Structure formats: structure tokens, C-alpha cells
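Entry 14. Ran structure prediction on the chain below.
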Amino acid sequence: MPGILWLVATPIGNLGDLTLRAIEVLRSVDAVICEDTRRTRVLLSAHGVGARLLSLPAFDERARAEPLVARLERGETLALCTDAGSPALSDPGQALVELAVSRGIRVTAAPGPSAAVVALELSGLPADRFFFAGFLPRKGGARREALAVLASLPATIVLFESPRRLAATLADLRAALGDRRAAVCRELTKRYEEVVRGTLGDLLVRFTGEVPGEIAVVVAGAAPARSEAAEPLDDAIGRLAAQGLRTREIARVLASERGLPAREVYARALDLASRK
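Output, C-alpha cells:
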């Protein structure tokens, strides 16, 4: 009989945020799968848990997940932890979860801390509807396309960013989305926790260089009064072209937003470009 894969949320900063249920699960499983065995060992030792650790780093995750799923299929019960927060969210463990589900393995959770949810709570922005964007693509067309999609979302946006790229991301968000309300949340639940609120322009002035710590950025969604669906297709094509997207990128974005065939949007964008 197959075993069980437990998704165990771990503290995002304060070691005291590990739940009693999480500790119980970690003590009961055959082994704990983690991204960095050194970090997880520190956490488990702090709570008196002496579990066996298995590594699943952010490299070739699918291939590395195969032997772990084989263990589950043989009847072992395993726990999956990320370095901090809830497993499978911007985490190598996502590949393992997808593979386990596809093989009919029971997957359940001991829920707890999530940096995305804590940042949303502390931002002061609407939390009734939100979109978690993870880490944006670093550059090129993929980054421009991702920003164009975020610009049209009528929901609060939550994303993660590295200390070195925060200033560049704030600048790109302001250029693509406009000067919206936003918050930078740094070192959440830790001693030097910081939440800075304002417009994207304000935050760009505040964070000009490398900023230490784990960072989440929360940005207000598109104003409800603006209906992208009501925007004429030609105007939408022109708007995205002005943001620097290539024709194929424009076709993918608008086809996804409007349920149109990408080839039709592409042909229309080419036609408009030829008239300039």
C-alpha cells in the first residue's frame, strides 16, 4: 500500500512558528525531504526532532523526485519541507508534489507559515482577491510578458524578489503597471522585520540598492473601473507594443486574456505594425 506525502509548513523567520501538529508529523514520518539539509537540521534540532533527512535541492527536481516517489510507492511516509514557509510555493518541492499526485499517492498537509500570505496581511492592500506571482522572470521577453499579464489583473499581486534585484523590479513594475500603491515586506517575523508602504515610486526612492533579507512585494491590482475586455483589440495591441513586447508576446498575452486564437491576434498585430 502506498505511503503518504506530508507537506509541512516551516517558519519563515521565527523558529517558534512551527506548529505542534507539524512537530508531531515530523517525528512520525520515515524521513523528511528538504531543500537544504543544514537549515532544516537546525530547525528540527531546536524542536527536538531527530528525523532522517533527504535532499531535494533546486536542481533537476523532476529526476530527483523519481526515487522519492518510489519510496512512497513502497509504503514509506515522507514529509516535505521547504527552507521557509509552505512547500511547493516557488519551491523545488513542487515537482515532487506534481509527480506524487500523478502516481496516485496521497498528499496531505500540516499547514502553517507562508511569506506570501503574511506579506499580503501586512501590506494594507485588499486581501479578498490576490494573485501570487512567485519570482518574475529575470529578463527579456518572458519578463515583459509576465509584467503585461500582471498589469491587467484586478487583484492584489504578491511576488518574491532577491535583495539584488528589488530596485530593478520596482522600476519595471512602475513602468508596466503605473504608480500603484504597494508594499515591500522584508525579513518577515524576524528581529529586523520591515514593512514599507507607499506608491511604487515612493518605494523606488526608498530602495535604491541591494537590500538585505528575504523580500516580498505586494502591489495593488488594476482599478475595477478599467475593463481590459472592453478595450478595443487594436488599442490593446498598441498598449502592449508601447511597453516593449514583441508581436508574438503580444499575441500570447491577448489570446490568453480574451480567449482568442493567438494566430488571429498575431496577424492583426502584424497588420497594425505594417501601417506605421
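The mean pLDDT is 91. Will compare against last week's run tomorrow.
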